[in-house]
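User: Hey, my collaborator sent me this sequence without any context and asked if I could get a structure. I don't really work with proteins. Can you help?
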Amino acid sequence: MGNLPESNGGKTLAKPLGASDRPLRFRGLSAADQCVHCGLCLPHCPTYGWHGVEGDSPRGRLTLMQGLAQGRLEPDSERLHSHLEGCLGCRSCEAVCPARVPFGALIDRAREILNEHPATPPRGDRWRQMLQHQALLHPALRSLGGLAARSGARLGVDRLLPRGGWKRSLAHTRDSLAPEPRLRATATPETADALLFTGCMDRFFTGPDLEAAMTVLEALEVRVAIPRDQACCGALDQHTGHRAAAQALRARNTEAFGAHDIPVIALDSGCEATLREYPEGTLGARSRSLTRFLAQRLDADPQGDIWEDTPIRIALHLPCTQRNVTREARELPAMLERLPGVSLAPVTGAPNCCGAGGTAMLTQPAMADGLGSETLKALTGAAPDVIVSPNVGCSVHLRALTTQQAGQPEILSPVRFLARRLKNDARGASGR
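Assistant: No problem. I've predicted the 3D structure and written it out in structure-token form, which is a compact way to encode the shape of the chain:
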């Protein structure tokens, strides 16, 4: 395949590649030259910590990208695919990099190139990708997929399947599957205080979260509109190298949410991170987490009389997207602690990523389950009453692992936790 960086006491054996060595074969990777190979990222990279191989470290992957760009490495190499596709996309390296290497954008571009040069024949991947993209665009297809998944889970279909992707997918997501939501907007886009982003997991996992969001926002007298024709944020396509599909979803959402300045609320930290990095229009600047929106609302009007005050201890899981991309690691714990009766249990020793990594929990099960188990151990060390995580993928992954251990606390999204803390009269006022 060419010179792959190997591990030798944490040092790179491959010679750093300069941009002027030879004409570029692939463009869009020049920012990899910013890496100074200092190694400060190594302790923060979960895949390097797991595998101990330089090619699975940030600086190793950047060297591979340089080799790919300059034609020193072939894009259809299986080893190259393994190293670059094995990244969890946590962007912990980006958060600590003194040279400010934009690793997230670089790994997306590298995977786009790999997608155009598959290591093995596609074997129907084009049809699968087309169906996935259509499902991300159209709620009816997602409804059909959600119904099939829930039916398969009830019937225990995964037990009849051979070992592999479908068996893992059904078994790992079974405990998080939920009916699709029945949402009722309380305002039109012209009169709303906020617009709700529903995402693409509404027919699979996040229906209860969306319903809880409407309950909480209505109790706080926030007028909410739910724009029609919105679609997936594009993260799934963007991070797997399908740039054209991601761009189509961005264009769809930009049009659906309009060009005004009304805030757009995202419940999932991954969706929020992706929306905030939209390059065109105003949607990126208007997008914010429900946590941030509610914190601003409660600053203006605390409304302490609507919350239950029975004591409860939370273990808070802060996902990669919130720590490394949106940089909102302080807002959520601060908001939760201001609620009556709520206290935060200490969480120590958690790895930088729980292993969910988008679809990595399905495609890299050994590493994902290992990192997830370490995360759960850290979250449950102080015996909390409940675990709260603002990322749907992380919640699905951790919830699947809790079923393997008796007596584990329930895992909730922040908004479902907030909805449960509403007093009955406040909850009833919203008609739910």
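In plain terms: Strands lie at 7-8, 11-12, 194-197, 224-225, 264-266, 287-289, 312-316, 342-344, 386-388, 410-412. You can pass these tokens on to your collaborator as they are.
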